[in-house]
Structure formats: structure tokens, C-alpha cells
Amino acid sequence: MNVGFQHPRASGFLRLAALAACLLLVSCGGSSGGGASSASALATSVANNPVIVSIGASPTALALGESTRLTWSSSNATGCQASGDTTGAWSGAVALSGTQLVTPSAAGTHTYTLTCNGAANSASVIVAAPATPMPTVSLSLAPASVPAGQPATLTWSTTDASTCFASDAWAGTRAGSGSIVVVQPIAGTYTYSLSCTGEGGSASGAVALGVSDLTGNVAPVVIDSGPAGVNNIINVAFVSLTLCRPGTATCQTIDHVLLDTASSGLRIIAPGVLDSDLALPAATGAGGNQVGECAVFVSGYLWGSVHRADVKIAGETAPSLPVQLVGDTAFAGVPSDCSNRGTSNLGTVAGLGANGILGVGLFKEDCGDGCAAHPIPATYYECTASSGCTGVAMPLADQVANPVTAFAVNNNGVVVTMPAVAAGGATTLTGALIFGIDTQANNQVGSATVYAADPTSGNFTTVYKGRSLPGSFLDTGSNGLFFPDSSIPRCSPSSGFYCPAETLFLSAVNTSTVNGASGTVDFRIENLQALDGAVRAASVGGSFSSTRFDWGMPFFFGRTVFVAIEGAGTAHGTGPFWAY
């Protein structure tokens, strides 16, 4: 035991006893030495009563924007100062005790310090950073139920999303919000799904389109990789149809037939496509010989014999229609005035990129009155095994004809409706070919603008960058938008396609020289070589004649386009006209 130790209370008692003794001495006339002993005792009392500071916060864990209550007290203090909070809400002189609400201004740890007469204490609170919001996805369809081949508007919106991808009934990268026209040609339920990601995570949404069956005036239009033997195609729209020996049940269904709104007549590649057992009867001319035809297109020619067939598409039938069988073995060779047209022979599936061509353009026949009046080079021929082929005139009734004109109803034109294609393209696309104009609920022109076409050529005028192009036309059979513009780089010196460094956003004005209708068309040109190799539909284009704008398949993306046949009446006038 430390012999110098004294219990505090015992020590105090002894001091009080000594003080009492001194007082007694004073009262008895004691000396001043007793006053010095009293001052020393008081100083000892203050030293043994230190300043005590206490501060706390409740709650100590907050979300950003929430408040906490500081509660503090002090003992033996004469003044207190607040410090530590960077916002200034807790600073300066404060009472010796009290409470105060404070609201931290940022996420993190906030310390609140109280200092009284040199003694200090602190309280801390932790403010959690706000959670990154999860993305949201919303989709809607208007209307949500349509007949087959009829359009609906798909609208979508997102929040807190950086990338979005479409799946199921549509595909590709999508913007955070937008709307497109969708068309499904076959009855069923089609789900449009959208998955998005953002800093807060991922979210998805979906909406379903109900498609009801129709009476049979709708045929699906498909853009895909094409038939076997075809490679690296883009923007080629196909339909399927059935050929029958006239008046019989001997038939063959042929898929991947190119849909063409810039020509008239059905042409089928015979080698490798046509079943020889079909045995379609050959057409004969006035001289009693078999008829051959040369059909010339911008990219090449098709040579073959003419036969008759019942042509069935969807629920429509064109009985005993003259059709061209391309590349058949009926004739020994191609007439020189056909092969010398300066273009290549497209008479194979690989050469054409399709199993045939279905021409459903503005005109009834592929040649018309000119060929009926007199022979025209590189058109119709009568052919014999001994003397070859000789050019002849061909009556209208025997010319290869637009099948639509031979339908019992829905025979005044067609409607082509296709979904929109996002930037970067799509690997497949499905639209609809609807027969008739203003004849059914699903082929009404409605508010579309009617562009009367030149009755001879079917053309209208496009003005592009101030340049008038009077030979312009709409053409599902062309796989791009083709127009003259030397400022756009080509993919290669030998290529007709444009390959701009960045996607170009352009516009042109289409005007009918017949009825004066006019409207602006906005379009884009993407770099063909920059597209993914699996893309089969995209907004691409290339160079063309200095006087023409070929509004090929990309024009039809996201549109419903009406093609009225010459001389055919509709509720919106007599053909030929385009409307969109």
C-alpha cells in the first residue's frame, strides 16, 4: 500500500476540519495565517471538477436528404463551439446544452464536433449514396388487334436505360423511345419484347399483337437469305405462289419469287425449280409456232418460252395466265437482239437471286399496245427448231400479264406494307402483299397521298439536291435506293453501291406531273460494307442514271404503298397511280 495515499472524501473532511479549527482560532483572535490556507483549498476544488462534454446523433445512418438530431450537454463549462460540418449548419457558438436538426448535403461520413472550454467530443453519421435507379421499359400497340396484313403502331419508352435490344417479333438495337409501324401477314399472336440495361441493372417488357385471319387477299412478303444457291443478297423481297396446269389439280408451289412493283408478269426459272411433271401447255403465236420472250431489266435479261398456267396467290387465282418459263430447253439459243442488250443473262436462280419474278406493277401486260401492233426487238418471238426465233407482234391477250388483273375480285392493284428497319439493318423481315385497292377493309387508301403516274412510263419526278429526275419510280424489285450523287463515295470503283464514311440522312421531293401531288421523302444511306454479314434488310443505296431515282426496297420499309393498275378504278381515282 502507498503510504502517501488519502481517500478524497477523507482528505476533504480533514481540510474542512482544519478550516473549522482556523475559524475557531479567528473567533478567538487568531492571526492572518488562516486566510492563506483557505485560498489554497478552493483552487484544489476547481482542479478536481473538469469540463465534461457529451454529444450524440440520432439516427446515425441516413439516406441522402434525411435529417438527424444532434443532442449535446456540458458540465463545468462556460462556453461551447460547434464545428466539423462542411455545410455550416453546425458551426459557431452554441448553447451549453441543447438539440438541433441537421441535414447532411452529400453522401459519406459527417462528423459533428462540440468543444467547450477546450474539451471536445464528436458524433458521426453515415449518409448512404442514393441507389442507382433500375431501368424501366414500357411498350404499347395501337391497335392491339388487327386483321392479317394490317398495320399497328408499336410505341415504346424507357427510363434510366443506356442500351436496348428488341427480340421475338422484331429485332435489332433500339433507341430508348420511339414508334414504328408493324405488320404481320399471317394470323396469330406476335410478341414484341424489349430488353434494356443501364447503370442500375436491366429490365424488359413485352406487348402482344393479336392478328386475325382474313378472307385470302393477303400474301406474306419475306426478306431473308433467299433460295438455295443464292449468296450475299440484301433487300430482296420474296413471295410464294402456286402454278397449276390450267383447269387441273396438278400444281406446284414455288417459294422465293421476287416481288417486283416495277414490272408486270410472272416469270419462273425453269432449271432446278419447275417440276417437269407440271407440263404447262405452251403458248403459240399467229404462225402456229411456240412463243418465246426476252424480258430486259436494268441488271440483265431473262429469256424463255411462254406457257399458260393457273396462278394462285393467297386466296386469289388468275386462270390460264400467260407466264414466262426462263431458261427452259424449248429453244436452242438466245436471239442475238436479246443477248446483245449489254446486260447479263439472269436465267438461273443464282443469277437472278430468286426462283422467279412476280411483276405486279402499274400495267396490265409486260409490253402492251406497242408489242400488239408490231414486232419490237428483244420482246416476243415465234420459234422453230429449224429456223430459230423471229420477232413477232403479240396480241394483248397472249402477252405475259400482271396476274392481279385476272383475279375475279381485288383486281385493281396491290398494297405493299412492310415494317420499319432500324439502323444497322435486320436479319429477316416480314411484310404483306395485299390484293385490291379500296375493295376490302384491309386495302383502303385512306389518308395516303395519291401520286398519279405517267400513263406511258409509270414515272413521276423526284427533285434531289435541286436536281430534277423525271424518270423516277417505286420498285420493290430493286435492292437499294439508286440515284445520282457523285459526292457519295462508292464501296469500290467497280461497285454501284454507296459506302459513306458515316450514315447519311437525306431527303428528296416526289411530284406527280399528272395531278401535281407532291411530298418530301426523308431517307438514309448506310455503308453497305459496314453492315453485319447476317443482315438481309437495310437502308442502302447506290448510283443510277442522271435522270432517274429508283426508290427501291428500302423506300417501302415502314410504309404502306398502293400500286393502282392502269385503267382500273378505285375510290381514289383511276390507275395508274402510286399512293403512300
| Biggest pleated-sheet summary | 7 strands, mixed
How confident is the prediction overall: mean pLDDT?
89
CATH class of the largest domain: Mainly Beta
Tally of structural domains: 5
User: What would you say the CATH architecture of the largest domain is?
Assistant: Beta Barrel
CATH topology of the largest domain: Cathepsin D, subunit A, domain 1
The rounded Rg comes to 45 Å
> What class would the helix/strand composition place it in?
mainly beta
The strand count comes to 41
- Taking pLDDT < 50 over at least 5 consecutive residues as the criterion, the unreliable ranges are 1-46
Query: Strand portion, in percent?
Result: 35-45%
The side-by-side strand order for the widest beta sheet comes to 35-34-31-32-37-33-36
Q: Helical region count?
A: 6
Task: Give the overall shape.
Answer: elongated
Spatial separation of the terminal alpha carbons = 111 Å
Relative helix content: under 10%
CATH superfamily of the largest domain: Acid Proteases
Summarize the entry for a quick read.
By secondary structure, the protein is mostly beta strands. The chain contains 6 helices and 41 strands. A hairpin with a 2-residue loop joins strand 7 and strand 8.
Descriptive keywords:
seven-stranded mixed beta sheet, Immunoglobulin-like, 41 strands, elongated, six-stranded mixed beta barrel
Describe the structure.
With 580 residues, the chain is mainly beta. It has five domains: 32 residues; 77 residues, Immunoglobulin-like (Sandwich); 77 residues, Immunoglobulins (Immunoglobulin-like); 186 residues, Acid Proteases (Cathepsin D, subunit A, domain 1, Beta Barrel), CATH 2.40.70.10; 143 residues, Cathepsin D, subunit A, domain 1 (Beta Barrel), CATH 2.40.70. The protein has a seven-stranded mixed beta sheet with strand order 35-34-31-32-37-33-36. It has a six-stranded mixed beta barrel with strand order 18-19-25-20-23-22. Strands 2-8-7-4-5 form a five-stranded mixed beta sheet, with no helix packed on it. Helix 1 runs antiparallel to helix 2. The longest helix is centred in the first third of the chain and has 20 residues. The protein is elongated and about 140 Å long.
